[in-house]
Amino acid sequence: MVDDEEVERVFGSIDPARLRINHYPACPIADLTYGLPPHKDYGGLAILHQDDVGGLEILKDGHWVAVEPEKGCLIVNIGEMIQMMSNGKYQSVLHRSLVNSSQPRLSFIFFHFPSDDSLVAPMSKLVTKDSPAKYRSFYVKDYKSMFAMAMKANHSPLLFFKESS
Ligand SMILES: O=C(O)CCC(=O)C(=O)O
Ligand SMILES: [Fe+2]
C-alpha cells in the first residue's frame, strides 16, 4: 500500500530532522498555564523520551489522558503529514504538556519533517473511487503558513485542506 517513492520524495532529505529538548521549569501557577498547549505534530514520526516527572497528555475519546513515564520507553507520535499521506488511515493525536509547581521537567523529541518545497498529497495507491482523497494536496510551506490561523481557530492546519465530503 505504501509507495516508497512518495515517502522518499517527501521525507528523503535528512535536512529537516531536528532534535528538540524541552525544559519546563517548575511553575508556581501550574494550574493556570501549559508547558505546551494542545497541538498535533506536523511532520512524519516524532520520537519522544520524557524524564520521570510526567506531564504529557493525549486526547483520547474526548478526555485528556496522562502518558505516564516508563523507564526505557520511547513514545512515537504520528505527525499530520502521515495523516495526510495515509489519507486519514493513520491519525495524528492531539497532545499537550502540563507543568507542575514542584519539579522541572525535560523531554527530548526527534522530529523528521518534510522539506518546505515538498508537494504532499494522499498516496495515490490509497485513493480510489470508493475511498476518495480526504485532503487537497499542498506544498509544505503553504501548510506551515496556516499555523497561526489554525492556532487562533483552535484546530490543526490540516483541517484547512480537508475536502468537504
Ligand atoms: O514535552 C512533551 O512531553 C511533549 C512535547 C511536544 O509535544 C513537542 O515538542 O511537540
Ligand atoms: Fe508535540
From TrEMBL:
Superkingdom, natural source: Eukaryota
Annotated ranges, domain Fe2OG dioxygenase: 13-114
InterPro entries in alphabetical order: IPNS-like_FE2OG_OXY (IPR044861), IPNS-like_sf (IPR027443), Iron_ascorbate_oxido_reductase (IPR050231), Oxoglu/Fe-dep_dioxygenase_dom (IPR005123)
SUPFAM superfamilies: Clavaminate synthase-like (SSF51197)
PANTHER family: 2-OXOGLUTARATE (2OG) AND FE(II)-DEPENDENT OXYGENASE SUPERFAMILY PROTEIN-RELATED
Record-given protein name: Fe2OG dioxygenase domain-containing protein
The species this protein was found in: Adiantum capillus-veneris (Maidenhair fern)
Lineage: Eukaryota, Viridiplantae, Streptophyta, Embryophyta, Tracheophyta
